[in-house]
Write a structure and sequence with these properties.
binds oxa(dethia)-CoA; Peroxisomal Thiolase, Chain A, domain 1; 329 residues; four-stranded mixed beta sheet
């Protein structure tokens, strides 16, 4: 696959102010800090809604505090600032979310409106694989005429939780991450990608209207590792890149153990994994841009570095992308 010439020039993040610790959860659930850390690596997560947020935010109207849109707007505004990009330069806002504020309209419309963007706006929902699908979508748009794309992953996962369900309430958190992508000649690029779905597995992880999340965690874990490893290997083969050449692996931050299991099977050393799950929990579509922004802030990326992004989640869906970093560092 030929280089498509797109570069990430801006990034931003947003987290709600309320920090929920494992000790907080011990007051609600039959669980322990030790168990949660050992099984998932999560120590704290941020919550925009739920029993630990005071005062309780209004869920309606959806323009209030603690919504997917408000987090997306904050992260998006930072990314535009870093990229020194004006709203009218953005061809499309692509908002990856599995927790839109309303069924209709798409949450990206409110985000575009708040940021003064009139180019175009669309939501992408592929659950926790959403941001990787968004990256592939944005790169495709840039290769066919878009000038700049604002790509955001934003979630209020706490709205989907049953806080009394110890099988999954400890795992998730809220947040947003955003990047600005620009079409360029050469420098950075999406080198190759792979995406897949197994629709026979929709019952492994779902949220029905008005109900709390249901997740068969152990089964999701097993299948996620297998599918994501195959997907990454396929993308690496297409890009003619060896695992040892990967400078940074930015996986969906589902669980520290899953990330390490995938990296080990692909042949990427643990120290090359970008990880923020310890302080954010699993933020679904927001997790990859949050981890990417953290790695940029730590100076972990240089021009020309090879980066692998990989997401997986409900559906089950998965996707991976091999990227040559070309942005300012
Ligand atoms: O974001 C994309 C999609 N989601 C994921 O990728 C998540 C995938 N799954 C996971 O991350 C893991 O399955 C979890 C972290 C959710 C759970 O870890 P696990 O190692 O798979 O635990 P388990 O569900 O197999 O439960 C092990 C034991 C069980 O007891 P028994 O049957 O061994 O006696 C559970 O009842 O731990 C018990 N358990 C708990 N104990 C303390 C379950 N939840 C808890 C809890 N605290 N919160």
């Amino acid at each position: 696959m030929s280089e498509r010439g797109c570069v990430i020039t801006g990034w931003g993040t947003a987290l709600p102010p309320t920090v929920v610790t494992n000790a907080d959860l011990e007051t609600l659930l039959d669980t322990s800090d030790e168990w949660i850390v050992e099984r998932s690596g999560v120590r704290t997560r941020r919550a925009a809604t739920g029993p630990f947020v005071r005062p309780a935010p209004a869920l309606h109207p959806p323009s209030g505090v603690g919504t997917t849109a408000t987090l997306a707007i904050e992260a998006g505004r930072q990314a535009l600032d870093v990229a020194r990009t004006a709203a009218d330069e953005i061809s499309v806002v692509v908002l990856c979310t599995t927790t839109p504020d309303q069924l209709m309209p798409a949450t990206s419309s409110a985000v575009a409106g708040a940021l003064g963007i009139g180019g175009g706006a669309v939501d992408v929902n592929a659950a926790c694989a959403g941001f990787t699908y968004g990256l592939i979508t944005a790169a495709g748009m840039l290769s066919t005429g878009a000038r700049k794309v604002l790509l955001i992953g934003a979630e209020t996962m706490t709205r989907t939780l049953n806080w009394n369900d110890r099988t999954n309430a400890f795992l998730f958190g809220d947040g947003a991450g955003a990047v600005v992508l620009e079409a360029v000649n050469g420098v950075g690029s999406l080198l190759a990608w792979d995406a897949g779905v197994d629709g026979s597995l929709v019952d492994l992880l779902y949220v029905d209207h008005g109900d709390g999340m249901v997740m068969r965690g152990r089964e999701v874990f097993r299948r996620a590792v297998r599918a994501t490893v195959d997907s990454i290997n396929s993308a690496l083969a297409q890009a003619k890149v060896g695992a040892e050449e990967i400078s940074l692996f930015v996986p969906h931050q589902a669980n520290q153990r899953i990330m390490e299991a995938i990296a080990e099977r692909v042949g990427i050393p643990n120290e090359r994994i970008a990880t923020v799950v310890e302080s954010t929990g699993n933020t679904s579509s927001a997790s990859i841009p949050l981890a990417l922004a953290d790695s940029i802030a730590r100076g972990r990326l240089g021009a020309g570095d090879l980066v692998v992004f990989a997401g997986f989640g409900a559906g089950m869906t998965w996707a991976s992308a091999v990227w040559r970093w070309g942005g300012p560092v």
